Amino acid sequence: MNIEDIQKLSTIETPAYVVDTRLLEKNLKLLREVQDKSGCKILLALKGFSMHQAFPLVGNYLEGITSSSLFEARLGYEYMGKEVHIYAPAYKDSEIDEIMSYCGHMVFNSVAQYHKFRDKALDLGIECGIRINPEYSEVETEIYDPCATNSRLGTTLQNLEDADLEGLSGLHFHTMCEQNSDTLERTLKVVEEKFSHLFDKIKWINFGGGHHITRPNYDVEKLINIIKKFKEKYNLEVYLEPGEAIALNTGYLVAEVLDIVKNNMNIAILDTSAACHMPDVLEMPYRPEIENGFLSSEKEYTYRLAGHTCLAGDVIGDYSFEKPLKVGDKLIFKDMAHYTMVKNNTFNGVNLPSIMVMDDNDITLVKSFNFDDYKSRLS
Ligand SMILES: *Cc1c(COP(=O)(O)O)cnc(C)c1O
């Protein structure tokens, strides 16, 4: 980060998520290039990043959004207004009409769900797909592995056999998580082996999300070549629907040191919380990077950084610094635009971080939260 941005971020009211629209646009430009060179269409998966203030910008580069619920579908329809896709493990009768009023493409998780809603969808001109489970993935963390034993996500080849697929226009698989294009290549090989007998019956195939396209060592050329080859071979429209790759490395969570306590080591209590504001730190789990923060003991002053909730395990991690921390210091957690705002919560009555955007000129407040936001969900 350049020194000016660090200084600007150190003056804001905390806690706050700050999305740098310059970095977001840089990601979007790369994703546009992938689409232009490969002929695929890329959708934003709202599950990872739903900050609708940025949807007009995203819509300048991507073809639309994909959703996994009624609310996400509606958000994409109302705030971007391009293609709206949906996939959910199952749809509710009470929501299906409204969902269908927003979506041009619907992916069903099972043949039974497809049969249940097929006539209604086809009458409305909605293109229907089925999510397949190729029973091949390279995801090592069990809770992120859609192909784990007994997974409910997607229909296996065995469960597709002899199924009536009349009216179907697409297939969908989502088996990747933060992976490179070599994983896609190996996955696609399995998908072709198992499911290519269906490819002449459909118009499109969706390769899901988990493509880490915008990270520095991602092999973009390989991805482009894989898609081009696939499209030439089967004459299918190809969709990708990454979430994380859109907002990867485009934002921060800025927090302030509230107190420093000692119990064998120095512990800094912050005005943010792993449990409330960056739940993936506990769930994945992973260690976020901090501007000017280093591995424990790498520099002279080491602190355990912890949240201000009452959960004993609300700990972000141990970090060292070149100078001692003091009350009132600001800390800048990196890569906090995706899977944060969409997952945060007000556990312990802790307020939600504000949402801000940053560009060449300034940092602007988009939204702040208050007692009513907290209260309104509780009675
Ligand atoms: C989570 C998810 C995505 C987006 O995944 P990322 O890892 O954020 O790219 C896309 N499609 C489906 C079906 C998903 O469940």
UniProtKB/TrEMBL annotation:
Classification via Gene3D superfamilies: Alanine racemase (3.20.20.10), Lyase, Ornithine Decarboxylase, Chain A, domain 1 (2.40.37.10)
InterPro entries: Ala_racemase/Decarboxylase_C, De-COase2_C, Nsp_de-COase, PLP-binding_barrel
SUPFAM superfamilies, sorted: Alanine racemase C-terminal domain-like, PLP-binding barrel
Sites where the protein binds substrate: 244, 280
Pfam families named in the record: Orn_DAP_Arg_deC (PF00278)
Domain Orn/DAP/Arg decarboxylase 2 C-terminal intervals: 18-336
UniProtKB keywords: Decarboxylase, Lyase, Pyridoxal phosphate, Spermidine biosynthesis
GO MF, any single term: diaminopimelate decarboxylase activity
Signal peptide: none
Recorded coiled-coil stretches: none
The keyword RNA-binding belongs to this UniProt entry's keyword annotation: no
Cofactors, names only: pyridoxal 5'-phosphate
GO biological process terms on file: lysine biosynthetic process via diaminopimelate; nor-spermidine biosynthetic process; spermidine biosynthetic process
CDD domains: PLPDE_III_CANSDC (cd06829)
Keyword Nucleotidyltransferase: no
Record's protein name: Carboxynorspermidine decarboxylase
Organism of origin: Clostridium grantii DSM 8605
